[in-house]
Write a structure and sequence with these properties.
Length: 675
């Protein structure tokens, strides 16, 4: 299989090279217009009738006068050049690279849109072949930079420049994002906290405390699942807290790191995606609201729906998140696994090897985080810092949410009597689309919060608490505690490097408009009842290719929602059925985004799950993939059938029960018992 991957990769690279050499720099022809470049303008030659040509270039609309069938657009040439995404008359997209040669003449090259999926595919394929993520991601970013630079394979200078751009542009761009920096700092501080509570004996104390309840591999896995569901408010916090806390417990009962990483990863995003009060809710409601506004603008129809009401109504179609959470319990209850996970669990139980053997160099780099000699094994030395992280996260969400809501109330002319929590909370119901419902008010509050700020407050508090408990308990001196914290920072460095390269790769997919290509490829569907299936596949592919469920939702919601409604109206679908289709598509976009995120080795949450569980990243992806695809296939069928059968809570619950039965049958039939 590995040789097959290699041959496929070599064949793909050869085809790409031939294509790059064979690309003509002559004017590009098309059904709607011809395009050529002058020294200071682009010339669009069109055979259409009329006095003007309507175009959208890099999301900016232009209406150019047509004179004798030609329209000119002034441009500035540069030797590095720039990408131009052109859409004509709402039809297909074309991607061009425009630059200046050394003599000042223009160089115009059309970049086929399908090449936009090449960088992530190369990164993923290389990672699967060589099981080395950082280099694979680096090569993927390099390929993306080469394509975005106009594919100048004829020039050694620009080929090398695309290599240097990996660090100069894309890595720096990834690190310049405040959200990304917040995740890096939060992860580092959590790593420092975990190192301290490991060395001061707190984690060993937790294992002793959990031994009363976790008396077998099955109960250890169940407690891990339970904690994953309990910490529902944020997927990042969920992943790092549960993985680091339960690792010692599952190690004691010889549960493989691959299984731990799977449980951690597959409880974090699914529960955060469907819970009423999470850090996801603000983004989700914003995306849904954008889609509803698109319906109003494009069709003139006001559906009279609130984003939160739509979200609640769509939950009945959230088959993948619910089935994923239930599927984990099936595996735990039956003590069965299949595929690569069975091999990993069998290895752990029979040999005690909890993860695949590391290289000698990697073993040397591993820091010793065993309790220091004489450390008291007190569970509270670990539980207090972890509990503080959870509580401060919730406090931060409430505090930043209330501050943001206060500003929104001021902008709406609904200023409360004061900025106190009680005054702001009492005034929330006056905002549009909120009302007196407790859930609506809480949803608005959490939706307005700044999760990054809350996580930073929480991780810093956890580290400080761990240091105070360690020094105050005279377990270690202050200098040793700080040194241990820095050791924890070091342990997080490999994952931070992977995260940074994954974000850099995402920047190339954004620059090459990967999601635009994938979306436009399936946008012209015919049967409205097939839309949930099409959107499911499309969302999963985009999320898998970009490694981000949030960006997938941001891209698809404003397109999928109005498109679904327009197709239903055009084909005379009854209003009630059209509404159910709309709810299904909204829920499907969210669910499939999570599925693609689970399957993607370049996903940040997948990377963090590997990190928190101390599991080889590719081993985690390889063992999780069959499970995610199995649940995804059943969820796809259930979602597709639901609207054909009329939709509604009754049909959806029936299909959910049938789907869970099918999954249980798969586990019993294909799963092998792991003792």
């Amino acid at each position: 299989m590995k040789n097959a991957y290699r041959y496929l990769f070599l064949l793909f690279c050869s085809a790409l090279t031939i294509f790059a050499f064979g690309q003509s720099t002559a004017p590009s022809l098309g059904k709607d217009y011809q395009l050529r470049a002058g020294r200071d303008h682009l010339v669009f030659a069109s055979a259409q009738s009329g006095d003007s040509l309507a175009l959208e270039i890099n999301s900016t609309k232009h209406t150019l006068p047509l004179i004798r069938g030609e329209a000119k657009l002034p441009v500035e040439l540069s030797q590095r050049g720039a990408l131009l995404l052109i859409q004509h008359a709402g039809k297909g997209y074309r991607l061009y690279h425009l630059s200046a040669r050394n003599d000042g003449t223009p160089r115009l090259r059309r970049i086929p849109m399908w090449l936009s999926v090449v960088p992530p595919l190369i990164a993923i394929l290389l990672a699967l072949i060589f099981k080395e993520v950082i280099v694979s991601l680096f090569v993927g970013v390099w390929v993306g930079a080469f394509i975005a630079g106009g594919m100048r394979i004829e020039s050694l200078y620009y080929t090398l420049l695309s290599l240097f751009d990996v660090v100069e542009r894309y890595v720096i761009q990834a690190l310049a994002d405040s959200g990304h920096l917040a995740i890096i700092v939060f992860s580092s501080l959590i790593g420092g906290m975990v190192a301290i509570i490991s060395r001061n004996g707190g984690m060993a104390g937790v294992v002793l405390a959990f031994s009363r309840y976790a008396r077998s591999p099955r109960s250890a896995q169940f407690i891990t699942w339970l904690l994953g569901v309990a910490i529902f408010f944020d997927d990042y916090a969920n992943t790092l807290i549960v993985g680091n806390t339960m690792r010692s417990v599952t190690d004691k009962f010889r549960v493989s790191r691959e299984k731990l990483a799977y449980i951690v990863d597959s409880t974090a995003a699914p529960v955060a995606a469907v819970a009423f009060i999470t850090t996801w809710i603000g983004a989700e409601l914003g995306y849904i609201d954008d889609g509803l506004l698109q319906i109003t603008e494009k069709t003139g129809t006001d559906l009279g729906l609130t984003p939160y009401g739509v979200f609640i109504s769509s939950l009945k179609y959230s088959f993948y998140p619910v089935m994923t959470l239930a599927f984990i319990l099936m595996l735990v209850y039956t003590k069965r696994d299949f595929g690569g996970m069975y091999a990993a669990e069998k290895r752990a139980r029979e040999t005690g090897e909890l993860f695949t053997k590391r290289s000698a160099a990697a073993e040397e780099d591993m820091e010793n985080l065993d309790p220091i000699d004489g450390a008291p094994l007190k569970w509270y030395n670990a539980v207090i810092p972890v509990a503080l992280v959870i509580l401060i996260t919730l406090y931060g969400l409430i505090d930043t949410g209330l501050a943001s809501t206060y500003g929104e109330l001021l902008d709406a002319g609904l200023a409360p009597a004061s900025q106190s929590w009680g005054a702001v909370w009492g005034s929330i119901s006056a905002l549009p689309d909120v009302g007196d419902s407790f859930l609506m008010k809480v949803g608005k509050l959490i939706g307005n919060s700044d999760s990054y700020v809350a996580l930073l407050w929480a991780s810093l508090s956890g580290v400080i608490a761990a240091i105070l408990l360690t020094v105050g308990g005279r377990i270690m001196g202050l200098a040793d505690a700080i040194s241990t914290m820095i050791t924890g920072f070091k342990a997080m460095l490999p994952a931070i490097l992977i995260l940074t390269m994954a974000w850099s790769l995402a920047a190339t997919t954004e620059e090459l408009h990967t999601a635009t290509f994938l979306t436009s490829a399936l946008q012209d569907s015919i049967n409205p009842f097939v839309m949930p299936v099409i959107i499911f596949i499309l969302a999963a592919v985009i999320s898998f290719s970009t490694g981000s469920s949030w960006s997938t939702m941001a891209i698809l919601y404003p397109i999928a929602i109005p498109t679904t409604w327009a197709i239903c109206v055009a084909q005379g679908v009854e209003t009630e059925a059209a509404m159910e289709l709309l709810f299904n598509v909204i829920s499907t976009t969210l669910a499939a985004s999570v599925l693609g995120d689970h399957c993607s080795p370049i996903s940040d949450t997948t990377i963090l799950s590997s990190l928190a569980s101390d599991c080889n990243h590719i081993d985690h992806v390889r063992t999780q993939l069959p499970y995610a695809l199995t649940v995804g296939a059943v969820a796809l069928v259930a979602g597709g059938l639901s609207t054909f059968l009329g939709g509604g809570w009754g049909i959806c619950l029936l299909l959910l029960v049938i789907g869970l039965t099918v999954l249980f049958g798969i586990v019993r039939t294909f799963g092998k018992l792991v003792d």
